[in-house]
Amino acid sequence: MSRIKLNVLGISYSQTQTGAYALVLTEEKGERRIPIIIGGFEAQAIAIQLEGLKPPRPLTHDLFLNFSMSFGINLIEVNIYRLEEGVFYSKLICNNGGKDITIDARTSDAIALALRFKCPMYTTEEILQKSGIVIDIHEKGDKKFSKSKTIESEDEKTFPTADISK
């Protein structure tokens, strides 16, 4: 099973679900994007790290980072390994200096931690085929127009997309 490295492209307010945000991941060597709907608190935790802001007191993910580092546990990588009924499943691969340990995690938490630990995030080709979208951006004069194309899975489910061209 081949692994595909992901990066965080950005976060935008979800136009399909009130109070939710679309976290957009992109494959490192490709054009496909994965939109993941997350809650407001999770979006805030990710956005704070993306913007390089330092809150006056540690947030939960910062506490997890401090706790882990204090006990010699490092987050090696995050794997988004399953997509079932629109829900992404992730695991943290940690190392305590002697052995690797796998921990189940919500994908939004896993990404917030990956950003703090500065570790890579991966998924599978199968998940990218099920949930990936390609966004074509065409420029006309001073305006940019985007056109989304959903890559459909075998069961022909489609997933909400976020307008990330703004």
State the main characteristics.
single chain; 166 residues; alpha+beta; Bifunctional nuclease domain; nine-stranded mixed sheet; 4 helices; 9 strands; disordered C terminus
Structure description:
- The protein is of the alpha+beta class and 166 residues long.
- The protein has a single domain (3-150), classed as Bifunctional nuclease domain.
- It is built from 4 helices and 9 strands.
- Strands 6-5-4-7-1-2-3-8-9 form a 9-stranded mixed sheet, sandwiched between helices.
The CATH homologous superfamily name equals: Bifunctional nuclease domain
- Strand percentage: 35-45%
Number of strands: 9
* Order of strands in the sheet with most strands: 6-5-4-7-1-2-3-8-9
Structural class: alpha+beta
Q: How are helices and strands ordered from N to C?
A: EEEHHEEEHEHEE
Query: Which stretches are low in confidence, meaning pLDDT under 50 for 5 or more residues running?
Result: 143-166
In short:
With 166 residues, this protein is α+β, with helices and mostly antiparallel strands.
